[in-house]
Amino acid sequence: MTASKPMDSAAPTVSVIGASGYSGAELTRLLQRHQGVKLQHLYAFSQAGKRADDLYPATGCPMTYLPYEGGTQSDIYFLALPHGEAHSLVPALAAAGKKVIDLSGDFRLKSTQEHEAFYGSKKPAEAVMTYAMPELFKEEIASATTVSNPGCYATSIILALAPLFRGAGGMPKVNSVACTAISGLSGAGRSSKTELSFAEMSENVRAYKVGKHQHTPEIMQALGTSSTDPSFAFTFTPMIGSLVRGIYSTLTLSLDSPAEAQAIRARYAEFYQGAPFVRVRNEMTEVRHVAHTNFCDIHIPDSGRSSSLVVISAIDNLLKGAAGQAVQNMNIMLGLDERTGLL
């Protein structure tokens, strides 16, 4: 919410480590106008010494990026770093009693085996945080001091499936899910890659990491199962398309008994009744409906009574899939309305 009341001088201070990437820029934009916190420091590595509004004029933020050399001056830290870099920073911040919200995949998975298999990097056995998807784990987030922000694909897909897996009494069992999801180019980060250049991706769509995408075990974990011993068959085909931002997921579900799409839709509306950023729409959703917002839109096409079901979801990968959801989690951790600074 964007009330124009003056900033409380006792408001918690916030810093962003990794502030010069796309998610970091969105965090900068959201946090500097947030009425419940004070943005204190922006830390970056290769961009240290530059001003945020020179690199990202849309942020309107005149702060200079600083090199992070340790230190725990702020009350809250957002880590918007490449995978593998948060492990070494979080212990000191946590030991100092700071609230930490990590946007990488370093702390999402409970299973060390799955982390190493899908991320290709070692992980300390104790490196697990509260998995911070507000619509599913709000109470756990509220009492946590360190949380792991969900991945972008994972957010789109978990929210599209959760009502049929969590407390879904009376609903048909899901036997299998086949998901195709298209992401915007910003999901790959700001670093230059030839295969993501305009010349390569304009008017183009391609699949990648089929069968081995790192968000697969995260999705299964949030739905109460695992990728190594799944309770349902899951096929995930991630794709990258010629749009800057957004994720559009189409999921085809096989059910163990026929169901009316209208009854499924009612289940979703009830499940997300208290979730301000999930909208169950009667009309087909599109990426443009959610771009530059923290909303996840879900649509269930009317297919009559059938054992097959299609669920479609759309999010902005940089907001609901990253920075916006991270601020939503911060709000919950601070006891604020989770919409604060996001509408």
Task: Write out key terms for the chains shown.
343 residues; Rossmann fold; single chain; Dihydrodipicolinate Reductase, domain 2; globular; 10 helices; 7-stranded parallel beta sheet; alpha/beta
Question: What is the topological layout?
Answer:
Elements: E1 13-17, H1 22-32, E2 38-43, H2 52-55, E3 65-66, E4 76-79, H3 90-95, E5 99-102, H4 112-119, E6 130-131, H5 134-142, E7 146-148, H6 152-161, E8 174-183, H7 198-201, E9 205-207, H8 215-222, E10 233-241, E11 247-260, H9 261-271, E12 278-281, E13 296-299, E14 305-315, H10 323-333
Parallel strand pairs: 1-2, 1-4, 2-3, 4-5, 5-7, 6-7, 8-10, 12-13
Antiparallel strand pairs: 8-11, 9-10, 11-14, 13-14
Give a written overview of the molecule.
By secondary structure, this protein is an alpha/beta fold. It folds into two domains: 13-149 and 322-333, Rossmann fold; 154-315, Dihydrodipicolinate Reductase, domain 2. Helix content is 24%, strand content 24%. The protein has ten helices and 14 strands. The protein has helices at residues 22-32, 52-55, 90-95, 112-119, 134-142, 152-161, 198-201, 215-222, 261-271, 323-333, and strands at 13-17, 38-43, 65-66, 76-79, 99-102, 130-131, 146-148, 174-183, 205-207, 233-241, 247-260, 278-281, 296-299, 305-315. The strands form two sheets. Strands 3-2-1-4-5-7-6 form a seven-stranded parallel β-sheet. Strands 9-10-8-11-14-13-12 form a seven-stranded mixed β-sheet. β6 (130-131), α5 (134-142) and β7 form a beta-alpha-beta unit. α1 packs across α10 (323-333). The longest helix is centred in the N-terminal third of the chain and has 11 residues, at 22-32. It is globular, with a radius of gyration of 20 Å. It is an enzyme of class 1 (oxidoreductase). This is N-acetyl-gamma-glutamyl-phosphate reductase. The active site is at 152. Catalyzes the NADPH-dependent reduction of N-acetyl-5-glutamyl phosphate to yield N-acetyl-L-glutamate 5-semialdehyde. Pfam families: Semialdhyde_dh, Semialdhyde_dhC_1.
